[in-house]
């Protein structure tokens, strides 16, 4: 029998290893508050030496793949860590979580892959000879609004 927390990881496997503190529906969105555990060591991107010495924490807001038709936002508390290697030029660095975050990324890789696949499908549909795809007129209307 799985605990409620383990069931969350069945639905959201990219959160495995994270500490999920809250999951609720707020303003029509599924909001997930999560953080990285304190005891996990992270390699410095500059020198590769692992560190777990915390400088500070900060919040990130990541858009995730929809769940049951609702948008999902992960409010993630991540650590800024010290690099203790005296030969490394980095003093601190922000941790990245495999499968969940990327530098300056505001979407999870799962959502990014879904949007990329959707873009490919739309591009193929719109460039097909004799395209009468309803999305074609929608895309052109959206382009006008973006100018
Ligand atoms: Zn380093």
UniProtKB/TrEMBL annotation:
It holds the Pfam family Zn_ribbon_ISL3. Residues 43-85 form the Transposase IS204/IS1001/IS1096/IS1165 zinc-finger domain. PANTHER family: TRANSPOSASE FOR INSERTION SEQUENCE ELEMENT IS1557. This is Transposase IS204/IS1001/IS1096/IS1165 zinc-finger domain-containing protein. It comes from Streptomyces sannanensis.
């Amino acid at each position: 029998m799985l605990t409620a927390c383990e069931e969350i990881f069945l639905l959201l496997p990219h959160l495995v290893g994270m500490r999920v503190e809250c999951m609720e529906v707020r303003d029509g969105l599924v909001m997930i508050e999560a953080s990285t555990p304190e005891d996990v060591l992270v390699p410095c991107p500059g020198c590769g030496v692992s560190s777990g010495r915390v400088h500070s924490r900060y919040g990130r807001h990541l858009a995730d793949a929809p769940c049951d038709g609702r948008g999902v936002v992960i409010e993630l508390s991540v650590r800024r860590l010290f690099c203790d290697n005296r030969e490394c030029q980095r003093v601190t660095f922000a941790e990245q979580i495999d499968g969940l975050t990327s530098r300056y990324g505001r979407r999870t890789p799962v959502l990014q892959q879904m949007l990329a696949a959707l873009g490919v499908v739309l591009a193929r549909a719109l460039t097909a000879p004799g395209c009468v795809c309803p999305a074609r007129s929608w895309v052109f209307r959206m382009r006008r609004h973006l100018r």
